[in-house]
Amino acid sequence: MGLFRKSSHVAPRRAEAAYAAILAASRRPEFYSGCGVADTLDGRFDVLCVHAFLALRRIKAIGTEEAAALGQAIFDTMFLDLDAALRQLGVSDIRIGKEVKKLAKAFLGRVAAYDAGLAEGGAGLAEAIGRNVFRGEGENTVAVAALTQYMVDAETALAAQTDDDIVAGAFAFPEIAVEKVSVTQ
Questions:
Q1: Which of 55, 58, 73, 62 lies closest to 5, judged by CA?
Q2: What 8-state DSSP symbol labels residue 31?
Q3: Which residues have a Cβ under 8 Å from the Cβ of 66 and sit 6 or more positions away?
Q4: pLDDT tier at 24, thresholds 50, 70, 90
Q5: In angstroms, rounded to a whole number, what is the distance separating the alpha carbons of residues 144 and 126?
Q6: Mind listing the pLDDT tens digit for each residue in 62-120?
Q7: Are 37 and 31 in contact (CB under 8 A)?
Q8: 175: Cα separation from own chain's centroid
Q9: What is the mean pLDDT of the chain?
Q10: Domain limits of the chain?
Q11: Which residues contact 20 (CB under 8 A, 6 or more apart)?
Q12: Is the pLDDT of residue 184 over 50?
């Protein structure tokens, strides 16, 4: 599943700290109470994917071997965490591999969609967010627009950080600017 390169050159604690910053940003209540993302396992996975995508995209832009190793280590740490979460939820040892592969496939699909969406501009990204985060349901354009703008703002904020800060795993994600949004579920 290697998106980058072998992560053996990265201290595990640095990757864990970087992943913890991504995870903390994805768990901010504003995404669920303010932006209307469903506060469910799927909703939390989707917001985690948004933040992991943004961090890994910034890391990849650095283009060094050290950055590539960190990106891979964060990816590995994220999926080890998802594996552990699935086990805590009672997924059997027999099914765990299939479930983790399904999550990895979903993540990589989102990476491709968000990457293409950012490349083509707001409409493409909004469509990818509506389809992935909001599952195309409810057609809540306010929530989609808010999360789309957040991703654009976050990409800008991460780009403004130094490469050294990024390789150290110090991701500074912006606040999300939304009014309380209601989503039809």
A1: 73
A2: I
A3: 9, 10, 167
A4: very high
A5: 6
A6: 999 989 999 999 999 999 999 999 999 998 888 989 999 999 999 999 999 999 998 88
A7: yes
A8: 15
A9: 87
A10: 12-29+39-165
A11: none
A12: no
The answer to whether residue 27 scores a pLDDT higher than 50 is yes
End-to-end Cα separation, the chain, in angstroms: 33
Find how far residue 157's CA is from the centre of its chain.
15
Mean pLDDT of 33-48: 91
In angstroms, the Cα distances linking 17 to 10, 20, 21, 53 are 12, 5, 6, 16
> If you count them, how many residues does the chain have?
185
Alpha-helix runs per DSSP H in the chain? 12-26, 41-62, 65-88, 93-120, 122-132, 141-160, 163-167
CA distances from 122 to 97, 125, 132, 151, 164 (A): 36, 5, 15, 10, 29
Residues 149 and 125: their CA atoms lie apart, in Å, by 9
6, pLDDT greater than 60 = no
**Phi and psi for 90 in degrees, rounded to 5?**
95, 15
Residue 52, both tokens: 């992991």
